[in-house]
């Protein structure tokens, strides 16, 4: 038996141990994994754990804990050790979960239909109608195919005797399936040998079935089905999972503002106009979905959605009103209900539960408080479980008073000591610890009356030892769940039970596969909301690159020690201040120290009016909402960018290095945009955003540069070329030190320079014409008007000492100001024509 890794593992607990038998020996299905871990050095084990953390950070997997200082960027946490379930045990669990899903689906059909369970006394009416989860407007709504519960999740706990018990049912928009797949993909990188050698079952079949079921049941009337994933938005705690699922399933990720009901049908507001939506996979709570008939104060829902579902014009998964089954008080009634509706004995028992709305149950709860867990009877109450044995003194008195005052609002559950499983110490030392765990399992309807259970799941881990609360909101972590295959008969084909995936799900997670009978379309449905975020993603990517380049160039001139460089710093400082970068007050020549401090603040200070940190956050915010439109490599590059800048940058050299990294990352994003993205309308708006921002930046830069005296202009020509990313082009083309007229031609008049103003005019004309031909409604004269003004100018009129120089400079300054204001006007016009207003708009100033 292995000793080195297990020697510090606590044993002798009164809880069931997932890894060890009562006599301290390894359970058979754990042996292969522990043997492999024993062969890893402490350093290698730490490296594998670091790979998991790095993969989570790189993939941008987050779970937003409310009131957490890390906000929307709080990383998901995954332990290196999985929870392992044997093939024999899984056979019982999967059958039991599928049966329970069928029972609950039948209960929903009855509660919103004939209500026989109520009339026969199998369910107390007060338990159903006394909660907000029952939606009266959904009475008699018949979902397509009679399926109310398209996806289902169940939380399971194992007691000390090894038996599994149901803790809770998740029936509204069950979360966690996407996290389970992400966990598996990360573990496939960190522990590929163990996944292969242990023949762990793959997970992708669950997602294939989910997509196929929605496609099959969607009321299309012969049309190609459009299925969307409805999210409350980026501030929801599981938004990261919503974006991942949308990308995996190939569904547009939409918010309520992206959908509208016209003629009792649901439509997606796309850049190409309205497209009918046939099915909605929702991750929004029931009552928020329709402010017209459900919750009137909801700003997230779609007015008229309930009526569209009532008429059978749209499939909603899960059906509206399914949240009524999340009441823990229902558990005690389900065994009899299963016998009545299915004629089957319920295979998987729930933790003994008592609804305090019945007087005998309340009396029992008060008499046995120390052995019970008090939970809200209805999910809408949002209260945390209270363990009776932990409540003493005045807190206990208040709890009893609450139970007696509102007994119908509470349920009591038997306190089950959760099983424990090994976790790797976070301190980096080579040892295992035990933590209590709870298993969440997922099932999906197959559209034929049965349910397919995901051969895996999501294990949630308590943050501290012997703690029975494993909520992710309370700081819990997660484990991948490995379901082992049944042993292959020795005489049979070695691959008889193998689907060729090696159980590692290491391939591309995109499972989109349209049935052969469907017409294949080349167009992409880009919502107006997504189009707007792609537009601003392009603008912010360009904006942060421009700012970083200007700051880096200016910092270089503060450190080279050349007298001519110091002589131009007053001019450069003034231009920077005109660009919005806060400069020191000393005029006309700021000190080097003061200038460097101001430039440092423009990199790291989140409170500065203009800073790289702020621009990176805005870029990330826009990109975060269009993750499903980005390749994995593109998202990895974006996800790393906010971490490039940190407050510990206290030297000019370090700041310059970071600015270089930011510029490289922005160039990487530009490459992804050109190489990874389909040339659809969303891409067009991304490119328009980039060129609008570059045009405005160059025009503002040149407008202020032209206000310098000719002598000061000549001194700062190299700075201007480097700030405009054109110094190398100039040197290759002219082979001499910068001179005014060649610099002016390169940066303003040259249509071949991608960092020149004329080039921006030309490209904006090109992309706007493409958008107009694809989408219509557009009549934009700004780029062509600006080009006509520029073409009317003569380069020789700008020569220093020329009689026409002053007049030419004034005309060019006027053109630059027109370009800056034109960028703002063009941005507003695009928003008015094509974009849906955001529910929480980000700053969009030019």
Automatic annotation (TrEMBL):
Region (Disordered): 1-21, 487-511
Domain annotation DUF403: ranges: 527-835
Circularly permuted ATP-grasp type domain boundaries: 82-462
Gene3D superfamilies found in the cross-reference section: 3.30.1490.270, 3.40.50.11290
Classification via Pfam families: Alpha-E, CP_ATPgrasp_2
InterPro entries per UniProt: ATP-dep_Glu-Cys_Ligase-2 (IPR051680), CP_ATPgrasp_2 (IPR025841), DUF403 (IPR007296)
Protein name: Circularly permuted type 2 ATP-grasp protein
Lineage: Bacteria, Pseudomonadati, Pseudomonadota, Betaproteobacteria, Burkholderiales
């Amino acid at each position: 038996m292995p000793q080195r890794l297990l020697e510090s593992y606590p044993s002798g607990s009164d809880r069931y141990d997932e890894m060890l038998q009562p006599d301290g020996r390894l359970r058979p299905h754990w042996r292969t994994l522990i043997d492999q871990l024993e062969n890893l050095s402490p350093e290698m084990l730490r490296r594998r754990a670091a790979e998991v953390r790095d993969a989570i950070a790189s993939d941008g997997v987050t779970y937003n804990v409310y009131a957490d200082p890390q906000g929307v960027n709080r990383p998901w946490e995954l332990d290196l050790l999985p929870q392992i379930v044997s093939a024999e045990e899984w056979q019982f669990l999967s059958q039991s979960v599928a049966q329970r899903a069928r029972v609950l689906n039948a209960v929903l059909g009855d509660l919103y239909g004939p209500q026989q369970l109520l009339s026969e006394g199998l369910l107390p009416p007060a338990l159903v109608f006394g909660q907000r989860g029952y939606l009266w407007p959904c009475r008699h709504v018949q979902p397509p195919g009679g399926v109310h519960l398209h996806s289902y999740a169940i939380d399971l706990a194992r007691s000390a005797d090894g038996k599994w018990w149901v803790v809770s049912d998740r029936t509204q928009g069950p979360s966690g399936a996407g996290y389970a797949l992400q966990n598996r993909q990360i573990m496939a990188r960190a522990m590929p040998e163990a996944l292969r050698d242990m023949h762990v079952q793959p997970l992708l079949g669950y997602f294939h079935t989910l997509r196929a079921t929605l496609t099959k049941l969607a009321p299309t009337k012969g049309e190609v089905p459009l299925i969307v994933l409805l999210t409350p938005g980026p501030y929801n705690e599981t938004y990261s999972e919503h974006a991942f699922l949308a990308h995996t399933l190939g569904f547009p990720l939409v918010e309520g503002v992206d959908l509208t009901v016209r003629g009792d049908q649901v439509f997606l507001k796309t850049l190409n106009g309205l497209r009918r939506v046939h099915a909605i996979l929702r991750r929004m709570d029931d009552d928020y979905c329709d402010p017209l008939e459900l919750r009137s104060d909801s700003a997230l829902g779609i007015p008229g959605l309930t009526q569209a579902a009532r008429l059978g014009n749209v499939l909603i998964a899960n059906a509206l009103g399914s949240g009524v089954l999340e009441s823990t008080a229902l558990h005690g009634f389900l065994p009899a209900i299963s016998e009545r509706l299915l004629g089957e004995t319920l295979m998987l028992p729930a933790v003994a539960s008592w609804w305090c709305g019945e007087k005998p149950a309340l009396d029992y709860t008060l008499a046995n408080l120390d052995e019970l867990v008090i939970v809200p009877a209805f999910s809408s109450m949002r209260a945390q479980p209270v363990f009776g044995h932990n409540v003493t003194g005045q807190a206990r008195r208040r709890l009893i008073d609450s139970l007696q005052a509102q007994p119908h609002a509470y349920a009591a559950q038997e306190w089950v000591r959760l099983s424990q499983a090994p976790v790797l110490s976070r301190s980096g030392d080579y040892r295992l610890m035990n933590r209590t765990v709870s298993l969440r399992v997922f099932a999906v309807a197959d559209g034929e009356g049965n349910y397919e259970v995901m051969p895996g799941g999501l294990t949630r881990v308590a943050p501290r030892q012997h703690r029975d609360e494993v909520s992710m909101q309370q700081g819990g972590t997660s484990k991948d769940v490995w379901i082992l295959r049944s042993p292959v008969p020795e005489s049979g084909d070695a691959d008889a039970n193998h689907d060729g995936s090696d159980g590692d799900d290491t391939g591309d997670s995109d499972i989109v596969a349209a049935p052969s009978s469907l017409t294949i379309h080349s167009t992409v449905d880009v919502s107006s909301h997504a189009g707007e975020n792609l537009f601003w993603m392009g603008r912010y990517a360009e904006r942060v690159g421009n700012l970083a380049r200007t700051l880096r160039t200016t910092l270089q001139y503060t450190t080279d020690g050349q007298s001519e460089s110091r002589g131009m710093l007053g001019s450069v400082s003034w231009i920077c201040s005109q660009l919005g970068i806060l400069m020191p007050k000393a005029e006309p020549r700021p000190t080097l120290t003061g200038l460097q401090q101001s430039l440092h603040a423009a990199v790291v200070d989140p409170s500065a009016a203009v800073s790289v940190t702020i621009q990176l956050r805005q870029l990330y915010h826009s990109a975060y909402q269009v993750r499903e439109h980005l390749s994995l490599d593109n998202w990895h590059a974006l996800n790393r960018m906010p971490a490039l800048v940190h407050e510990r940058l206290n030297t000019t050299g370090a700041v310059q290095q970071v600015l270089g990294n930011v510029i490289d990352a922005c160039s990487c994003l530009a490459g992804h945009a050109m190489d990874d993205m389909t040339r659809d309308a969303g891409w067009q708006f991304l490119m328009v955003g980039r060129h609008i921002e570059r045009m405005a930046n160059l025009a503002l830069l040149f407008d202020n540069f032209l206000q310098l005296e000719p002598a000061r202009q000549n001194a700062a020509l190299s700075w201007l070329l480097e700030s405009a990313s054109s110094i190398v082009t100039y040197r290759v083309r002219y082979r001499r030190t910068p001179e005014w007229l060649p610099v002016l031609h390169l940066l303003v008049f040259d249509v071949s320079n991608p960092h020149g103003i004329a080039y921006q005019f030309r490209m904006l004309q090109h992309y706007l014409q493409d958008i107009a031909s694809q989408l219509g409604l557009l009549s934009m004269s700004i780029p062509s008007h600006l080009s006509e003004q520029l073409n009317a100018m003569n380069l020789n009129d700008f020569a220093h000492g020329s009689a026409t120089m002053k007049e030419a400079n004034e005309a060019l300054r006027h053109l630059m100001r027109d370009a800056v204001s034109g960028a703002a006007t063009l941005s507003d016009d695009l928003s008015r024509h094509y974009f849906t207003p955001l529910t929480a708009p980000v700053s969009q100033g030019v």
